[in-house]
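Researcher: Structure for this, please.
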Amino acid sequence: MFFFEHNWVTEIAEVVRECSARRYDEEIICRLLSIIKAFQGELFTGSQPSEIVSSDYEQISRVLAARSAGLLVGSLLGGFLYDRYTRHRDIILAASLLLSGLTIAASPWCQDLWVLGLLFHLMGHGHALLTTGGNPTLAFLWEDQAAGPYNFLHSGFGFGAALGPLIIRPFLAPDDDANGSYYADPDELTNNGTHNSYYADPDELTNNGTQNSTSTSQIEYPYLFIGVLCLVVAATFVGFYAARSRSPAIFRPAEEKALKRILNPARCAGGNSAFALQMLALIFIYYMLVVGGERTYGKFLFTFSVESGLKFNHRRATWLNSAFWISYTGARLLAALAARWLSIGTLIFIEAFGALASAIALDVFRDDPTAFWICSSALGFFRSPLFPSCLGWANRYIEVTSMTIMCVNIGSSVGGMTMQWLTGYLFQYYGPTSFVHVVAVTSAALCLIVVVMHLVARRRGERYLASNHPATAVGSSTVQLSKYDETKVTSISTF
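Model: Predicted structure, token format:
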């Protein structure tokens, strides 16, 4: 009777209800963010900005470069804003979604190339701000159990990547696949701004290589749809912000941090600067290889299957690409479940060495259509969870702050730009076979980095061990807990 009569039991039950509700609500919203990020990145796989303004591919490549520059600048800006103004993270996320929504929706109405380039640059800012703010939110919500939720969250990217071209496709000008025509993917541009001839629909190009302005596409509708979706999710984060400001102080926001403290790498490793720098450098290289290899494979797979000894037609090449993304999406969902029974370190080893085995098999069986289908799907299966799994793994050794995610984003951007350029150069001058060689070499390098990361991290130990639990470091988290001690919060996390 004593246990049930005391008011503290009711208080704990209320905290469980409120904490769990907010945690799962924010995870669902963060998954929508992942889908939206994929829409922003993969929307242009099914369409091309050259349908918006009459220009050649060299000019359009400048527009795409402006977006990449926006990703870099946005990562730096987001890393500062989210760590400096932690209590306002919801409203910053809402502002980034508003920026993304407006720039996406306005793009189809641009008639000047420089205006389109400016919009794409701002779009890159919005994309980077979403990534920089969303990932630390999940790390705080789930702490040492974040590996599964990270994989579940990032599976939304696969859904978005698969849905983006499907949303665009009905609104494009009609093409005649039987005659070998196919719409150009701006991300497939070579380093000199030209494009392989089999990508472009000859009926849509003028004699000087520019697109016919009389195109019958109506791509403004899917762009508008994605823009409205961004605004709806932005309104949700405004609601989170307003609700928190009116509710009792169950969650007390951390104080804004000085710039010197924000930029100090030791902050994410309990004051150990050497360990922090080692981990951040390894994470940078890891994501440079993961994202660079992933984007390279996704963008050149269609090209390779048509130009190589496989000799796929456009329809079969499209299905091959779809099979890759289906396997990619399913793997992240399965990894989210597997994280409940396997340690995150074991998962990363399985994923990295599984991807290496698949890449080697791709190289060996590059001219066998059936084997290539199987190996390509296997590569997507093993490579897909590598991005979110490392975030969950890193969260066990260092604090995943917005500055940490900034390092992830910059590594991803550098890897995406350099590896796609390198693969395009080798593809152009040394033939299609160089593509599968690059995939195999980068997969081997990734396995080496994974081994080094584990060796470095084991010397330090996990920060969630009983002797080193981050209860004392909660002041540097996104949100502080007050009124309830750490023991109760830990039990809530496993409720």
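Researcher: Any notable elements?
Model: The chain has a mean pLDDT of 70. Residues 2-493 form a domain with the Growth Hormone; Chain: A; fold (CATH 1.20.1250.20).
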